[in-house]
Design goal:
1% of the residues lie in helices and 17% in strands. It has helices at 133-136, 474-477; strands spanning 146-148, 154-156, 182-184, 187-190, 193-196, 222-224, 227-229, 236-238, 264-266, 269-272, 275-278, 304-306, 309-311, 315-317, 386-388, 394-396, 469-472, 483-486, 491-492, 498-499, 506-508, 516-518, 531-534, 546-549, 563-564, 569-570, 582-583, 594-596, 602-604, 606-609, 620-622, 629-633, 648-652, 655-659, 678-681, 684-687.
Length: 690
């Protein structure tokens, strides 16, 4: 027989749970304060080792980034004030760091000028004494015999005191700084030696027993007014050949002295064969004083009388295609039939200038004007897609052939001649009628059947035109000619597959727009005017490239505000910092893009288009060969134009830009990196955060 006990089960003693903040076992001790939990992994605390590169206590903070290490000696950094490095990582280097002021070589922030030999960086700009060129150039660098050069070095200036004033080893004339300077009364430093100074005073100034022109020091030097020491024989020679004086004391003067042969004897006059000769034959002056001027002087026969003019029994026109009356007879070019005629001169036979010969480079009717400069050709063809305009100008007439038909450097809609020309085709990504609006963003396409159910990224004016139900118009968003997108929220997964987009668009979020469905493109093709194909820096090729707004001129915009080269949108000026300025978040930059550089603040950047590399202000476009977009960096001429180191002025974008390498970039030294840290990993150096 089965016997069933009716007694109550024994009570169960509760266990402490080591991490729920409750006293589970009722012993007045909770979690890690309860002895039951002393050995529990939750309560066994592992302290952070502050210099082993590991997250020892498992709180996702490594070494000095962990609050436990803030006061650890391995993490307390002190600025060394003369090593060119930001040792304590506070974005201030050496004397620019307040920790260094009035310590060692650092001053109190006062003026460097007047203190250019004290070994102290008085104004704390990290250059001291003569090296501080802006403050010390031309200043004394010790006593009266040393001065700071504009190259930032010391130089000897007292060259006869026997002292090495600039402390570089040589003194006086032995110092190259003294070359040509006075080394005493009548003495000048020449080729590292004391040399003869005045070469016409009859005194042996350098005490080498040779005086004036007889001293080698004086070769080719002046020996008085109009007198020069000969370069080879130590004799005096006449060099003033128009003053009427016998300057070298040989009883002959000016052109009558053989020394003056081929020397100038005044404006437009040269000594030849012991006589004055006219050599400037177009200044209307009788330069040689023989009573005949210019082409009337036989000296001028066969010589030039000015541009396009030659002396040949009088003035003769020789340049017959410059639209100038070069010989001053009232007739220009082919109209001067006495001087200009025949095909070799570009002159015709006198037949009228007709539409058929307005591009032949010939003045057919010999009236002095050829082709478009001839009023007979006004409105006539000057080639394919070109017509002659007033004043010899040419006008573009073919505005959709991608050619610069009038040769003014602008083609199609970029040429003002094309404004309002042509008929808009509503689905070819081109501004066919040159009204600054493309495809369905053009009012002329509003009623076109092509402008309904438009896929993401296409030009638009109204929400009803877009398959996704939303049009981001140019007036509201600054996007050139508007852009179709989808309503609601879109997303994109790691494989590059978008949801929430229609018409083949791809979902993307970047520095210029919120999350939006955009038109897919490839490399550098597939986008309309005012947009460029952008890969967003992807390297796995899974995320599709997309069209990014990158207007480059006002001609990309249909509105009245024009192209803002900071944001690459059609809009007016915005508040915020310009390209190259420091920033900490996107909203501080006009462009909406604050590039984080780590360690030295952010850097305001803007996109640009590789095929039209235009940036605002002095910025330059640094292009990327993988797509059709690049980045605008602050332009520079030298490091002084950039923010403090590690920013440097480096070559890029057809000029130089202010730059420092961001994290994960290859580097050579710490000074290359924005973070100030260049570390080696498997034989290659990269910029790291610490």
């Amino acid at each position: 027989m089965l016997v069933v006990s009716c007694s109550s089960p024994p009570p169960v003693t509760p266990k402490e749970l080591c991490g729920d903040t409750k006293d589970n076992d009722g012993d007045q001790k909770t979690d890690c304060a309860d002895p039951d939990c002393f050995e529990d992994p939750f309560c066994v605390r592992i302290p952070e080792n502050c210099s082993n590169g590991s997250d020892d206590n498992g709180n996702n903070r490594i070494d000095c980034l962990d609050a436990e290490c803030f006061s650890d000696s391995a993490c307390i950094k002190v600025e060394t004030c003369d090593n060119g490095l930001d040792d304590d990582a506070d974005s201030q280097t050496d004397c620019q760091d307040t920790e260094c002021q009035q310590k060692g070589v650092c001053g109190d922030g006062g003026m460097e000028s007047g203190n250019c030999d004290d070994g102290i960086d008085n104004d704390n700009n990290n250059v001291r004494d003569c090296a501080d060129v802006r403050a010390c150039a031309g200043q004394t660098c010790g006593g009266g015999g040393c001065f700071c050069t504009d190259g930032g070095t010391k130089a000897e200036s007292a060259c006869g005191d026997g002292a090495d004033n600039d402390s570089d080893g040589p003194s006086d004339c032995a110092d190259p700084d003294c070359e040509g300077l006075i080394c005493g009364n009548g003495c000048a430093c020449r080729s590292g030696q004391r040399g003869e100074g005045p070469c016409g005073d009859g005194v042996d100034n350098d005490t080498d027993t040779k005086t004036d022109c007889a001293d080698e020091d004086c070769r080719s030097q002046l020996c008085g007014n109009g007198c020069t020491c000969h370069a080879t024989n130590g004799m005096k020679t006449e060099s003033g050949c128009a003053d009427g004086a016998d300057n070298d004391g040989d009883a002959m003067s000016d052109c009558g002295d053989p020394d003056c042969n081929m020397q100038l004897c005044g404006n437009g006059c040269r000594c030849m064969g012991m006589q004055k000769r006219e050599v400037d034959c177009g200044d209307t002056m009788d330069n040689d004083g023989d009573g005949q001027a210019d082409c009337n002087d036989t000296d001028c026969a066969g010589t030039s009388c000015g541009t396009g003019c030659n002396c040949n029994g009088g003035r003769q026109e020789t340049l017959c295609n410059d639209r100038v009356d070069n010989d001053g007879d009232g007739l220009k070019d082919c109209a001067d039939t006495a001087n200009c005629s025949g095909a070799a001169q570009g002159c015709g036979t006198g037949t009228p200038e007709q539409p058929s010969n307005c591009t032949d480079g010939v003045d057919n009717d010999n009236d002095g004007d050829r082709d478009c400069f001839d009023t007979d050709c006004l409105g006539q063809s000057c080639g394919t897609g070109c017509a002659c305009a007033a004043g010899g100008a040419k006008r573009e007439t073919a505005c959709a052939d991608n050619q610069d038909n009038d040769g003014d450097g602008m083609r199609d809609c970029m040429d003002i001649d094309c404004a309002g020309q042509g008929t808009e085709i509503c689905n070819d990504n081109i501004d066919n009628d040159c009204d600054r609006a493309v495809d369905c963003g053009d009012p002329s396409c509003a009623a076109s059947g092509m402008c309904s159910a438009l896929p993401d990224g296409r030009a638009c004016q109204l929400d009803t035109q877009c398959q996704g139900g939303r049009c981001l118009t140019e007036a509201a968003t600054g996007l050139p000619s508007g852009m179709c997108t989808s309503t609601g929220t879109c997303s994109i997964d790691a494989m590059g597959v978008s949801t929430g987009c229609t018409g083949g668009g791809t979902c993307n979020i970047d520095q210029q727009l919120v999350k939006t469905c955009r038109q897919v493109c490839n490399g550098s093709s597939g986008c309309r005017t005012g947009y460029a194909c952008h890969d967003d820096g992807d390297t796995d090729d899974k995320t599709p490239d997309y069209c990014l707004p990158t207007c480059s001129s006002d001609l990309d915009c249909s509105g009245t505000t024009g192209c803002n080269l900071q944001t690459r949108k059609c809009e007016g000026p915005k508040s915020g910092s310009v390209i190259g300025a420091s920033c900490s978040n996107d909203s501080q930059c006009q462009s909406g893009w604050c590039f984080r550089t780590s360690g030295n603040g952010g850097y305001c950047l803007s996109y640009c288009q590789d095929s039209r590399p235009v940036c605002g202000g002095d910025a330059r476009c640094v292009t990327d060969s993988e797509d059709d977009t690049g980045a605008c960096y602050d332009g520079c001429m030298s490091a002084a134009d950039c923010r403090p180191p590690p920013y440097r002025c480096v070559s890029g974008g057809g000029g130089s830009v202010c730059y420092c390498a961001p994290l994960d970039s290859e580097c050579s030294t710490d000074t290359d990196c924005c973070s100030g840290h260049c570390r080696t990993f498997i034989l290659v150096k990269f910029c790291t955060p610490f």
